[in-house]
């Protein structure tokens, strides 16, 4: 039986990845600071602990795994990443996790390690036009991310690829573009835009109003979790090390994302734009390289994923209300 280690298994993407690997017949160990908030883990072994602690990391990477997935990071949505308040923690915590996990894998002679980078590492100057952002993989340099979160991701990308060159490892690096889906964070400040919009709309009475940060003309693309996992597994098991984008090319304005959530709800709700952290003006996945290297790219419509997320969040709100 093949074995896999999922770091960050208590998080949104990690939790779904554990389920996918179990369906493929893997024995899976999950590691995180916490259990999953929204679903019972399907991992064969789930270990609670701090991946910033080198001794702990060595205790969980106590054997050779066929595949290691390093998703653990200090991260969140715009309300967490772009305020500047959490910069030191974001850089320190995530860098320590990556240094520890990668070194422990090397010393256990584990070759195939997947690392989840982010589109936040792309230069700010290439994302000023909301209608024409440049997020091709080869546009990363000269480097100029718009956040310390992006700078740490860029450093860690180089770390994993350096271990490939120097130690004969087979690390694979992907740049995620706004992954979303059910069983993800939807409140508390770390939620991403799709979950935030669905929450606001679900809580808003018919005829009410929701707030949208910024002028709402900033653009993004959002990738549903199932397609993200497909891309991750294809890349991890390929001969291509990356970095490569894993994201959707369906770009949408944030105001239009909010309107989509409203349409799905069937309510009559208006928008009010207010000051708030927004990040770059435009970002959209460029999928030319992933098509070339993996002969695959995501193609599911955003609307389909938003319908599933809205239904799940509305259900969570109703369940909480009934329990209260």
UniProtKB/TrEMBL annotation:
InterPro entries recorded: Epimerase_deHydtase, NAD(P)-bd_dom_sf
Pfam (any one): Epimerase
Listed SUPFAM superfamilies: NAD(P)-binding Rossmann-fold domains
Coiled coil (residue ranges): none
Keyword Cell inner membrane: no
Keywords noted in UniProt: NAD
Organism the protein comes from: Phaeovulum vinaykumarii
Annotated NAD-dependent epimerase/dehydratase domain residues: 4-247
Protein name, per record: Nucleoside-diphosphate-sugar epimerase
């Amino acid at each position: 039986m093949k074995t896999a280690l999922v770091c960050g298994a208590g998080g949104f993407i990690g939790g779904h990845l554990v389920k996918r690997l179990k369906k493929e017949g893997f024995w899976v160990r999950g590691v995180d600071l916490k259990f999953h908030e929204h679903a019972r883990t399907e991992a064969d072994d789930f270990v609670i602990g701090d991946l910033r602690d080198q001794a702990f990391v060595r205790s969980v990477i106590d054997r050779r795994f066929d595949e290691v997935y390093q998703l653990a990071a200090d991260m969140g949505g715009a309300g967490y990443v772009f305020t500047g308040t959490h910069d030191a923690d974001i850089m320190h915590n995530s860098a320590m996790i990556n240094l520890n996990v990668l070194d422990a894998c090397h010393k256990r002679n584990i070759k195939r390690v997947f690392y989840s980078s982010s589109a936040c590492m792309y230069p700010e100057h290439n994302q000023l036009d909301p209608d024409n952002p440049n997020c091709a993989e080869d546009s990363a340099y000269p480097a100029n991310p718009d956040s310390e979160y992006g700078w740490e991701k860029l450093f860690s990308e180089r770390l994993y690829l350096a271990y490939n060159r120097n130690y004969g490892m087979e690390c694979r690096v992907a740049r995620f573009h706004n992954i979303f889906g059910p069983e993800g964070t939807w409140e508390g400040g770390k939620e991403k835009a799709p979950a935030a919009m669905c929450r606001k709309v679900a809580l808003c009475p018919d005829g009410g109003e929701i707030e949208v940060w910024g002028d709402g003309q900033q653009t993004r693309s959002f990738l549903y979790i199932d397609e993200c996992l497909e891309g991750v597994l294809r890349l991890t098991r390929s001969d291509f090390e990356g970095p490569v984008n894993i994201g959707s090319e369906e770009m949408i304005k944030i105001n239009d994302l909010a309107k989509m959530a409203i349409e799905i709800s069937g309510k009559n709700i208006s928008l009010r734009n207010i000051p708030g952290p927004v990040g770059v003006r435009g970002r959209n996945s460029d999928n030319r390289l992933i098509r070339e290297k993996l002969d695959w790219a995501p193609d599911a419509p955003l609307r389909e994923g938003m319908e599933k997320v809205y239904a799940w969040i509305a259900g969570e709100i109703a369940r909480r209300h009934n329990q209260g």
